[in-house]
What we know:
seven-stranded mixed β-sheet; 25% helix; Ald_Oxase/xanthine_DH-like
Amino acid sequence: xxxxxxxxxxxxxxxxxxxxxxxxxxxxxxxxxxxxxxxxxxxxxxxxxxxxxxxxxxxxxxxxxxxxxxxxxxxxxxxxxxxxxxxxxxxxxxxxxxxxxxxxxxxxxxxxxxxxxxxxxxxxxxxxxxxxxxxxxxxxxxxxxxxxxxxxxxxxxxxxxxxxxxxxxxxxxxxxxxxxxxxxxxxxxxxxxxxxxxxxxxxxxxxxxxxxxxxxxxxxxxxxxxxxxxxxxxxxxxxxxxxxxxxxxxxxxxxxxxxxxxxxxxxxxxxxxxxxxxxxxxxxxxxxxxxxxxxxxxxxxxxxxxxxxxxxxxxxxxxxxxxxxxxxxxxxxxxxxxxxxxxxxxxxxxxxxxxxxxxxxxxxxxxxxxxxxxxxxxxxxxxxxxxxxxxxxxxxxxxxxxxxxxxxxxxxxxxxxxxxxxxxxxxxxxxxxxxxxxxxxxxxxxxxxxxxxxxxxxxxxxxxxxxxxxxxxxxxxxxxxxxxxxxxxxxxxxxxxxxxxxxxxxxxxxxxxxxxxxxxxxxxxxxxxxxxxxxxxxxxxxxxxxxxxxxxxxxxxxxxxxxxxxxxxxxxxxxxxxxxxxxxxxxxxxxxxxxxxxxxxxxxxxxxxxxxxxxxxxxxxxxxxxxxxxxxxxxxxxxxxxxxxxxxxxxxxxxxxxxxxxxxxxxxxxxxxxxxxxxxxxxxxxxxxxxxxxxxxxxxxxxxxxxxxxxxxxxxxxxxxxxxxxxxxxxxxxxxxxxxxxxxxxxxxxxxxxxxxxxxxxxxxxxxxx
Length: 770
């Protein structure tokens, strides 16, 4: 043995024991599913299989608006291998009014087609190619009608739906209508149609049950709502339909298109066999909801010092063919139309209308994102008129805790808007690019771009954004969770879907923190569990996380009470730290593992935030539970000859309440900011005459890693919201809302052009006469 080996083997020189892996709230606990996703073993819906499987295909309308004269399924039914063909005639029920986003849309179009891609029929066959060919063999005779594609014309057009074309109108009146400022600026703005473009395939599996019901295996983000809608359409009771949530490959909106969920279940019930459907990318674009295209008209009044006196606005949301979540999106748009600024007088009119365009619905930051782009453009105009620095103008008007929103609701949560803006304003600017061939990749357009360094102008712009958390206007927010501990291993049962927001990791951290247990598992989600609601607006961090915390605390009490009774003290005098139970006086010291050995403890709890109220006829009311804010400074380089834009850097400051998982929080903010880059510069789903053009990822340009700018998280304000569990705030939506406005502001600064449309088209950034 060599001397080196002998030394290494000496007990005295043995390597120290590894440090325990940190856990609990406030640490960067790795995601539980990270390894499975990395190794390719994560159970996505597209990977599911069942014995005797059939394959489904959906026939969709090639027209935006048409009357259906006849549907002939004879040829499709006679094709070898075809097991079933279903149309509207085979749907035993219908959506229940007011229940879920599909409440006003049919499973299949019957008399009239209202949008391009609307389902007409569905086929089940023994091979996917057979199913697709059979769907194409269904003969539909259409009487093509002129589509209503301009939302401004929807008011006077013939009704496109039995419920009419107007989905909702909100008039918001706050303050003195006669108020006026010395300085007035006006603008008109348009926000394009953006798609959530989920990376993973939208897929599902339906399995019939012996009791005449059906089980649907889906990447659903709101399984109980999907179950209730499906049961109503299938003519079944909710307990006859079960939704099992498969692995969700990320979601920034409603993950699944009910235009194939519901036909899938019908085919399984009709054939008595498992049926699977995997949507193509084109079908995904045709089927699921998009961000609302929006037309906005603004007039800002300010005094000579730049302080806002009055804001007037008109907001028109294009809901597409069906209502979906447009009423909620309009409420957010109208309520936040003035932004995170103090506005003593506000008069806003908002409408959401039906058209024959593709359906719009829940996409991260809906409503708030569109108005943020408009009111920040107005602030830039106002600063230019006054000759004031744009950041300084924003600081003079910044909202703070205790101020009143235009809805009349007092801001009671932390609102460090000025602090956030000052943080990004003071952060050092990035260095200018070198004017040399080695650095030509820094030019807008990339290394193969045609631009010249002399045509590049740098601009710096700002954006301030706000969003609401949880539901609004009286939504009954509630979630239920169960925590079980057996032989030192904890299990969490909660129907909160992990869609990439990190809930399963958070649930593990909560239980670790509360009980001192290292090994925590989160059970798969299905509708046999009590409902937890949809996975949007930071709900699961607040409501479902709160339910897990309460259940864990109840188990903690069950664990500590016998010990406390034995030593004649209150269990509140005992604490759990690093897996050890100790008393305040040091008399008691034991481990959690010892006390849990051989025991099974469990508890179920609910979390329900304080109630809100609907906006009244003047747009007034305490409609929101909590608010989150963000400030972003954008630095861009613009080739003023070609109109190409490169986002150099985005500096972000955000109020987060409390950091629960640093790495996870940073990832959510960076992802939201990057999504905003796409909204600002590239993502535009074009629909001439209501028809989707290029419904694929070549025609719809998502930002890639090469498009992602340097993202600097310069400040995270941890001022806890006392009404929220853990004091934390939603983190994902507000950077999506804010970054497009900041980028547009920077392009305005670089070019002097108004930039009144998103995404920014090259011609909007071209400067002539240079």
